[in-house]
Amino acid sequence: MRTDGGHDLRHHGDAEVRDDGSALVDLAVNVRADTPPDWLRERIAGTLGSLAAYPDGRAARAAVAARHGLPAERVLLTAGAAEAFVLLARALKVSRPVVVHPQFTEPEAALVDAGHTVGRVLLRAEDGFRLDPAAVPEDADLVVIGNPTNPTSVLHPAATIAALARPGRTLVVDEAFMDVVPGEREALAGRTDVPGLVVLRSLTKTWGLAGLRIGYVLAAPETVAALERAQPLWPVSTPALAAAEACVSPRALTEAARAAERVAADRAHLLAGLEAFAPVGLRVAGPAEASFVLVRLPDATAVRGALRAQGYAVRRGDTFPGLDAEWLRLAVRDRATTDGFLRALSRVLASA
């Protein structure tokens, strides 16, 4: 497993629960709990009788396009957003890619695997991990940023991100968690006025489809065509295509909007509970706007191990460039789960 600059770019939250996750309350993976819903399971199961036929993505592609008010030639369906990062790294002809960190590490890992030398812009905790467009090198011809950003939970203004656009530059915005933001404010998905814009979306987080792998790219037709040429034949399965079509339906969008409001309320409950630990040095990065929060506390590695012994898995932060071993990421869960976690955290810190 490769590391870069001391950071294991291939470490993800599922590693925290992979071997004994059944015995742990999962606060490490950012997939919404109790998903997929029954109606979506039934929709996916209904495709099993047609698995002998090759997948046909036209209907799903048209549905995603309609959801964002775009023509179908601006949409590419992918096996999760992670595949899109690989396609971008392999298909685009770029000479100076830059990744804004801390953020999801898979974009940089994919670029390195494709032979690129990757520049980093490190946002600072003392600045609230806010983006300063002037920090991005002017000659960068590929810029990758998450919004809201994993793991910081920071939501950057759309205008600030759009200010990164330049002639000859590809601007990749990972909006995998934008649908947990009420009203999807600051979204760039659907915009056609920002030159070089590529927006990535995932359907695996809100709908609990990480095992199915489904996401999509929104970009100019020529960019979509270049990425599509880099894909293997039939890259998205028939069940995943059915899920994509279902998850952008009016019913699904209404349900997702309600879920985003619940996440915001549950996050506020978590943040209020974490305030009690400020006297022992716990600090929350923020303001948090996604379905997870990033916290800093002394001896976080030992705390993470002690929480595991208490039955709770949390995400280590030191695999993200720009963070160190004092950071942990916590998934937002329902109030009962959060209350149990806060009690466990209190026990751990009291014993420490």
TrEMBL record:
Keywords (A to Z) from UniProt: Aminotransferase, Lyase, Pyridoxal phosphate, Transferase
Keyword Lyase: yes
Domain Aminotransferase class I/classII large: 25-345
GO MF entries: threonine-phosphate decarboxylase activity
Cofactor(s) of this protein: pyridoxal 5'-phosphate
InterPro entries named in the record: Aminotransferase_I/II_large (IPR004839), NHTrfase_class1_PyrdxlP-BS (IPR004838), PyrdxlP-dep_Trfase (IPR015424), PyrdxlP-dep_Trfase_major (IPR015421), PyrdxlP-dep_Trfase_small (IPR015422)
UniProt enzyme class: transferase
Record carries keyword RNA-binding: no
EC id: 2.6.1.-
Stated family: Belongs to the class-I pyridoxal-phosphate-dependent aminotransferase family.
Record's protein name: Aminotransferase
